[in-house]
Amino acid sequence: MAATANSSEINRKAAVAANPAPGARKTEAGAKHDISSVVMVEVPQGFSFTQAACSYGYFVVPPNLWQRCESGPGLSDSGTFNRPLRFGERLVNTARCTISLVPACGQVSNPKQGSGGDQQAMALRVDVVSAEALTESDQEDIRAQVVRMFQTTIDLAPWFRLHPEAKKRGYGRLFRSPTVFEDMVKSITGCNMKFGGTIRMNKLLCEEFGRSGAFPTPEDLENVQEEDLKEKAKVGYRAGRILRLAESFRDGSVDPAWLEAPERTREEVLKFVKALYGFGDYAAGNVAMLLGFYEDIPMDSETVRHFKDYHGVTTKNVKEVAPRVKKEYEKYAPYQFLQYWYEMITWHEKKRGLEVHLWNASEFSF
Fold it and tell me: What ranges do the domains of the chain cover?
């Protein structure tokens, strides 16, 4: 996980600028009034918003912005998540969205999972500000993206049986992007780059090529020249890879529905993604992990450092550490990465004396 160098106050001001309060009005002469609406998203019993949001580094990568709540009574699962989301045919429209966890108040029917007695049913509230009124189809576009980001529909019961502490914490829903395309682009920008550089590239992609600061779609990149993308988004050699990927989404050779189909296997996903231009083992593995395949642990310097800090392994040789990594996590199969990342988060929480959702943005760096 990694981060920007912004302070909490800068985060607060950026969120206000990017996501004005619902009902905010445009000030240009003759401009249409913004329209505010609310979309509710069901969550299962025991759902933790902070654990679903602050669970993987992408939640601090633009256009995502997490606003922490200071610790205090009733704030253990509090915070707001802000970003623009796309909607409409081919996602051509953009809305500013602020997401928070609220009592369901009868607005949604909470799924019955496990035992919870008379526990208050909760829901995700999405405050949407857009230039036009949302149709039912538009609301479904936004709802589906929120479900994907926070993985509200996955069944964590098998994982929780393996890891009672994770169940108590509510950990297991790794944050991901609202679309497969965004996850794949961010996987490209994460290769051979410090996390601060990944953040900078994605910030520029949104500012220079997205609509109203949203993440660009494949269609947004259709007429972009490689040199222009290199210059404006500072992505270097990755420009050709990003544009080739966008073209593959446009012509249908990459079908997100196929990749996300429940019958798809890890082997099929890895084989397909590795065949795409610019996707090596690391990027393809990250894409597969974000599609729900948690068997693999990335063997890099970060994993070696973790095994030194957490498990007391002294060797710095990746090949020597690899067998120990495999043995350590095999009892958690097929959730090896969830355990690895659980250790990473809790280790750094202990070092810093704060739960992950209370860190400043600058502290999201392992």
Answer: 8-25+34-160, 180-290, 305-363
Distance CA 37, CA 57 (A): 29
pTM for this prediction: 0.86
Tokens of 181: 């395309």
pLDDT score at 19: 46
Q: Average pLDDT for residues 81-89, to the nearest whole number? A: 96
The yes-or-no verdict on residue 112 having pLDDT over 50 is no
CATH topology assigned to domain 180-290: Endonuclease III; domain 1 (1.10.340)
Look at residue 2 in the predicted model and tell me its pLDDT. 40
CA torsion angle 240 242 245 247 (round to 10): -70
CA distance 315 to 154: 37
Q: Determine the Cα–Cα distance for residues 143 and 59; give it in Å rounded to an integer.
A: 18
Q: Would you say 61 and 1 are in contact if contact means Cβ atoms under 8 Å apart?
A: no
Task: Extract the tokens encoding 41.
Answer: 């998203």
Q: List 123's β-bridge partners, or say none.
A: 42, 102
Among 65-79, 125-139, 145-159, 204-218, the range scoring the smallest mean pLDDT is 65-79
Q: Which long-range contacts (CB under 8 A, 24 or more apart) does 196-202 make?
A: 196/2, 196/3, 196/4, 196/5, 198/2, 198/61, 199/2, 199/3, 199/4, 199/60, 199/61, 199/62, 200/234, 201/233, 201/234, 201/235, 201/238, 202/61, 202/62, 202/63
Omega prior to 63 cis, within 30 of 0: yes
Q: In 3D, which of 308, 301, 294, 277 has the Cα closest to residue 340?
A: 294
